[in-house]
Amino acid sequence: MSTLAQQIVNGLVLGALIGLIALGYTMLYGIVQLINFAHGEVFMVGAFGAHFVSLRLLPADTPWYTALPVMCVTAVAVSVAVAVAVERLAYRPLRGAHKLAPLITALGVSILLQEVVRVFYPGATAPLAFPRAFPDGHLVLGPVTVLWTGVLALAVAPLLAAALHLYVERSRLGRAMRATAQDPETARLMGIDPDRVILATFVLGAALAGVGAVLYGIHYTQIDTAIGFQNGIFAFTAAVLGGIGSIRGAMLGALSIGLVKSLAGQYAWGGAQYDYVWVFALLILVLMFRPQGFLGRPERVRA
Amino acid sequence: MKSKTTGVLSALLAVVTATGTSACAAGKTETAGSAGGCDTSKGTLVVGVIAPMSGKLSAIGLGIRNSVQLAVDQANAACAVKGYQLAMDAQDDEANPDKGAAAAQRFADDPNVVGVVGSYNSGVARAIQPKIAAAKLLLISPGNTDPVLSRGADFATAPKRQYGNYFRVVGTDDLQGPFNARYMVQKEGKKKLAIITDGKAVGESSATEFAKEAERLGAQIVIREKVNENDSDFSSVLTKVKTLNPEAIFVGSEYHVAGPLSKQARDLGLNVPVSGTDGLFDPQFIALGGKDGDVATSVGAPIDKLDSGKAFVDAYKKKGFSDGYGGFGAFAFDAANVIVASAGKVTASGGWSGGLEQRAELIRQVQEYRTDSGANGTIGFDQYGDSVNKMFTVYKVTSGAWKDVLSDQFEAK
């Protein structure tokens, strides 16, 4: 029983962190039908940005409650800057091209960003220890122990997802985003500038990825240039599982993936070495019976 | 998944690189001249290096490259190969078998290459061996510990030399795994052990040999699990391991997995030592989460306990490389010196043509090579190409740094 509870918490923490990346995938697909495989790398550069500011610019004795916000702001700024640059330089020229062109471009951008960080960031050829910008130690709830960084992830990720959901539902820009997702041509006729909306979507997704990167770094205390790819694949899977285009679905999908991965490692046949198998088995099963995912709508996508 | 789909790819790559480099070799002009007062009128000979100089194992790979550079520089200064200037050509394999095999093919096609120091990863060596067998290119590994590479799949019962041109200067997992088990069971008194591996060939083989010896000594392996090498979250598998109350965890992987795993185990309240083989023995292990009490066994004696080892360390420091020599620099240094000394003997009675006959003669010289003054002490090879030096050392994290606990010659029982 205590093991089960611990595994559920393990899974939820992992899921919450993946969820913050998945939100970016799902929004972009909802609005431009672009699977932005470089989104994982936007997350990765955020982590390196936070690493840089903490080790090179902040004094070593900066207390965590100062360091953490500074790192978050830096990570968000770096992620957003990279995402905007990628949008302007790589995706915008391809607007209107065949759907495959931006997809292949996304893969290329993903590799490019990984290599650029690997080659130019000092020490990034090997895994780097991430600064500990949060109290060490853990919360003990009966039989369950959670690191404080895990508690933070569990609190922040759903909160940000909810805030994003509200923003897209209520705000003016959110309405423009939904309109563009529904029918770009009509939206344009109504005076909405699709380029602006798409850019805003990139910015929002990147900002969430930046926050996720800092949470990820302080929780696992190690980053490398491959974290974007590895977690990006899970995040993309989560977005598809939850119903691509749906914000609540992406978070739900990510939490499901975290749970399946951790529970399958404990209870399913084959143990931890087959946990990935069960994650993707779940994806296939869901897609067989509900191709639009948990909360997606068939043939209609929305942000 | 990757390794299964790479067969065709690697074949293609090999063809491409083979055609590409033969063109290059034809255009290359030998630079004759003198360096540091030595006669180098006959041209340049190349010592190849294949190591993971980027990626997660770069701390090890860069140490290997720099140490070979040091050996080559020393040889040039001492005119070790009469008539020739020596040069190093280091290729990054990124711990990827395809990349390693492509680099090996390139070296094999280049007549100026006398021998190669590499690879670090056993998995990469598996891809390299068949590629260079026909070319009889000398390969001396500073880091492969999988026994299969030299003695075949039945290494324990029916050992058979796999490749005449393959040698290594490190001890193998079938010795190191049991050596580790003896320490954990007999010296640390751990009777209930968990095993976690990352699925790579080297991790699996060392874990299997560890388990056999631990069970022979009366310990119990309570669980054996596998994680994905790219994972950073081990909380699930550690929660599972914790329910079985092991007294220690043997990790068949390298520092980038074992370090965070050690930290996450402690975070979950599983405060037991992590033990592993040479892949853990790196300062990065501690930086990434390794804790006091964690254990690593490694090949050879502690480098600062030997005069010849100290000389290597001093010379390395004097060079001012930006990276440390890592866990395997000293072995790479020894391996490079074997190549240099043997090449010196082969070319003493004439020039180097790079033909098959000469490469075979070089291999004969390496087989007979023997010294007691390598950076790691005794260097020499048995009939399988394995090192005759069966010395291993136990290191333990003490006050945040690796400290040697004991060194011993391993004898099978």
Largest beta-sheet characterization of chain B: 7 strands, mixed
Averaged pLDDT of chain A, please? 92
Low-confidence stretches of chain B: 1-35
Q: What is the terminal-to-terminal distance of chain A?
A: 39 Å
What is the name of the CATH superfamily of the largest domain in chain B? Response regulator
Provide the spatial order of strands within the biggest beta sheet of chain A.
Answer: 1-4
Q: What count of structural domains of chain A?
A: 1
> How helix-rich are the residues of chain B, as a percent range?
40-55%
Give a verbal description of the structure.
The complex is a heterodimer of chains A (303) and B (413). Chain A is mostly helical. Chain A has one domain (14-227). Chain A has helices at 2-32, 39-57, 64-91, 100-120, 148-170, 172-182, 184-189, 194-220, 227-242, 247-267, 275-289, and strands spanning 128-129, 138-141, 144-147, 222-223. In chain A, helix 3 crosses helix 8 (194-220). The model of chain A is unreliable at 299-303 (pLDDT under 50). Chain B is an alpha/beta fold. Chain B has two domains: 37-171 and 305-381, Rossmann fold; 173-299 and 392-409, Rossmann fold (3-Layer(aba) Sandwich). In chain B, 43% of the residues lie in helices and 22% in strands. Chain B contains 13 helices and 16 strands. In chain B, the strands form four sheets. A seven-stranded mixed β-sheet of chain B has the order 9-8-10-11-12-15-16, sandwiched between helices. Chain B has a five-stranded parallel β-sheet with strand order 4-3-5-6-7, sandwiched between helices. Chain B has a two-stranded antiparallel ribbon with strand order 1-2. Chain B is elongated, with a radius of gyration of 21 Å. Residues 1-35 of chain B have low confidence and may be disordered. The interface between A and B is medium-sized, with 32 and 34 residues.
